[in-house]
Amino acid sequence: MITELVQLSFDKIMQTRAYTVIILKTSEKKFAIYVDPAVGKSLHTYLTDQEKPRPLIHDLVSSIFKGFDIRIKQIVINDLQDTVYYARLFLEMQKGDMRHVVEIDGRPSDCITLALMHNAPVYCSKEVLEKTIPVLD
Fold first, then answer.
1. What letters, b where the CB count within 10 A reaches 16 and e where it falls short, cover 54-78?
2. Residue 43 banded pLDDT, cuts 50, 70, 90
3. Fewer CB within 10 A of the terminal residue: the chain, N end or C end?
4. CA angle (59 as vertex; 83, 22 as ends), nearest 5
5. 33 lies in a domain?
6. Domain with 35 in it: what CATH number?
């Protein structure tokens, strides 16, 4: 079965002490993903170019990708169950004539952070998008 993907763009992030809300959008719809405040703080730090005294986990992962010449091909939010989103991180490594693509399970918040850091596209399956609850402006 071929899954139809819809490209998403990052709209905004809102933080409280209890949770962080990441708003994603298509041309027709916006929806929210609620995440742990620590992950939200990491994303906010990256988006606002704040100085960090030490590298955060996303910086470490990015350095590993760079060291092995791995690029993020895309992120796909592929499932939604009881308000919990699931995502897949697609990594690509080119060695000579061989291209190797690996698909890895990840939290959407971590995948979105890495996608923003690496300017990689974020997609959502059409099926998941239809299940999301729209956020109104």
1. eebebeebbeebeeeebebbbbbbb
2. confident
3. N
4. 25
5. yes
6. 3.10.690.10
